[in-house]
Amino acid sequence: MNKFMNLSFENDSVLPLYMQIANAVVNNIQKGNLNIHEKMPSINTFSKKYSVSRDTVEKAYKVLKQRKILVAKKGKGTFVNSSRIIVKTKVLFLINKPSQYKLEVYNAFTKDLGEDYLVNFEVYHCDEVLFFNLLEQNLHTYDYFVIMPHFNTSSDERQNFSETVLKLIKSISSDRLIILDNNDLKLGNQCIEIFQDFERDTFEGLNNAYFKIKKYQELILVTPKRFNYSYIDKITNACKKFCNYHEFGFKVLNEVSHNTIIGKENLFIVLEDDDLVKLLDKLNQLKLELGRDVGVIAFNETPFKRLLGISVMSTNFKLMGETAASMMLNRQKSKVKNKFCFIDRISC
């Protein structure tokens, strides 16, 4: 035990005591106070020496074993697994579904964090159970958690989060939590939040596009019937508000099929890329010209839309990742609305 140095712990620290112990062990290994294959104090010995509970020490050792810093040898004790540790801060990046723009956030985030951070990427496919299991089993493995919280619910009310999920998210220290994209958790300014305001952004985006779309008579919003997300209601409300204000007709479609009737002077707002492809196929079959006969505005910028000349309303996903990295590195805790804009192209 005499080899240990700097093992003073703060009971009022935002960092849990077991993590303070784990970090202190790592620091001692890095400084050469502990060497490879060196035996660690038993949990009982550590507990008595530093007046901390056995459970807390056990939890700290468990974290270090999960990180392969310590190794347990049956009947012999716990040993230092390596004396040449390059300790990187570990970040779990949880997204609801894979997409080009979610990857853009992730890539910008990891690039700006730099080489001292290890960011692991997990997809929970909008499933609350999978999300809960991924987060719960990794609570003691990672230093930071970046979460894009969107869930596909069976409820017609499209409730955002179950109480169980919300409680688990709130159990993470605010210093270790970054929430991206969704503004519905109601966490205040206690952690880092970079969000889209789906209703306000959509309404303002359509108003910014009014000079191009005022020639159309009816706005048709294409929403994916297979998904039940809260932000769909917000986008729908914004479209209704815009149409009422500017005296447009308004309609919602859950899919584009061979039975879909498309008339001239229709303006389509499309949320999902699959529906956009089907719509473009249908317009091609009917020999309707984009931007003249029929208008199309898609959500979320991608290279595919840029190449095809599709007008887009989109948040700046690269900026979202960069802002999250910057705030994390500088320990800035606040709620920030991400930049959103209308990108004018030939399709409307």
UniProtKB/TrEMBL annotation:
CDD domains assigned: WHTH_GntR
Listed SMART domains: HTH_GNTR
Pfam family of the protein (one): GntR
Keyword Translocase: no
Domain HTH gntR-type: residue ranges: 15-83
InterPro entries: Peripla_BP_I, Tscrpt_reg_HTH_GntR, WH-like_DNA-bd_sf, WH_DNA-bd_sf
Protein's name according to its UniProt entry: GntR family transcriptional regulator
Taxonomic classification: Bacteria, Pseudomonadati, Bacteroidota, Flavobacteriia, Flavobacteriales
SUPFAM superfamilies from the UniProt entry: Periplasmic binding protein-like I, Winged helix' DNA-binding domain
Organism: Thalassobellus suaedae
UniProt keyword annotations, A-Z: DNA-binding, Transcription, Transcription regulation
